[in-house]
Amino acid sequence: MKLIPDKDILLFRSCLVSVEYPGVESSTKFVFDKLGIDYAISEKQTCCTGLGHYSDVFNQIDTSAIGARNFKIAKDIGRPNLVMMCATCYAINKKSVKLLNKKDDLRNHINQLFEENGLEHLKYEKDDLLPSENIFHVVDILYGKISEIPKHIKYDLSEYKIASHHGCHYCKVHYEDTIAGFRDPNIIDELIGACGCKTIGWYDHKRATCGTGFRQRYSNPDLSFTATADKMNALDDEEVEIVVHLCPNCHIQFDRYQPLISKREGREFEAIHLNIAQFIAIAMGGDFDKVIGVKAHTTPIDSVIKELKEVEQ
Amino acid sequence: MTSKQNIDDSPIDFAEKIIADVKNSKEEGVLKCVQCGMCTSTCPAARHSDYNPRDIIERVLEGDISILEDDLIWNCFYCYTCHSVCPVGNSVCEVNQILKQIAISNEIGYDKLYEYMGFADSYFTAAIGAIPEIFFEDIKNDVPGWWEFRNNLADIRDELELDPPLMPPKEVIDEVSKILTITGFKDKIEKIRASEEAKQ
User: Fold this and answer.
1) ipTM, 2 decimals?
2) pTM for the whole thing?
3) Any residues with CB less than 8 A from the CB of B36 and at least 6 apart, and which?
4) Which residues of A touch B119 (CB under 8 A)?
């Protein structure tokens, strides 16, 4: 397996995590602290442009120029390992690093713009960062410590019926770097396994999109929600109680729109939706209000997890 | 005989233009397409609409530039499922994004971008890519409790002891605004906005 860092990490802030599910950030920090991961956050880092990029508003030059600035900030503070909480940030940043290293014309163009406009300090040199060695998702870092996770588990969640949903922009964009499978994705299932639980494994539509589709959700809602319904029907067929994912886009689509899709389908979907960092943080004893951030959820977490059972020692 | 360009014609201008695009990461993948249809059989947009990724590549290889004005190309979810299963290493998802950027550079599809101008605005005011406010009313109607949650966001973040705050410092916002001005982004946004608002 590729080398996964546990230090010199810039935990890359996500717009959607910040304003929709801030508990994903606090849960990630809680779990990273338990596992002894060395990370920091920078107030200088900005949004990856992902939502605007995939709505076709930002072109590749805009996005890679913003990326070059964020990469320089990471290097300057001695934290060249960018670790993303959002699958879109992960895909966007990895692609920018790949293109900036490989396409001399793009790199030279952006550097020239920086130079001519008093932004020399942001210039990106070829191979400043490497796509496989420096760009990660939180799940990769957790996977690097998978043998440590069981030592910190306080609560037993094994009685719930659990399924995973692996965000497309983690699994399918840079699939050569995806850990534990991209055609039959399993990294979340394996991390849940380290918490002493077993997921349902494969289910119909397991590798399908959550249905967000960026502009589809807002401009083409019927198309978006119909794709989400494929997934929700498949999960309900398996009587899943907890769906665990790794991207705030998917989180919004499942959690926020579950009541609406229930109405559309005439079927009461009742699963709760957790990011993998929140799931592990719950199992490790994180407080529901002070760590997990349950108040941000539309589908109440206590509609399924009513009480916690301590693991037998 | 067809008036369209055939694969053995040389050069295959339209496909070559896509291959040369800065966004293309699949080298000559588009030329390797064997029309197997794996992309279409796994595509969520093809499952639920008339969007057809296999057909997109066929039209590109035929040099059919009318595809730039075809509304269906805007149905792609950007889920990269086609990209991850293509047996010859092509990516319709990426080709689709390139087609849209070519369309936009030819002033096609401005109406599709207009609703998303909020993504640009939030970058100049806060250096973040917030969901455009134009969609808030829909979200309020579709998601019970969302607006109340958003109004309590600061308290929830406080309880989670999240730091630093949402907004980056002014010098960061200024630097990012400058970058998006020198790349030509700001001019493009102003042009799209002016063009769409002139129609109203």
Assistant:
1) 0.96
2) 0.96
3) B54, B87
4) 51-52, 55, 57-58
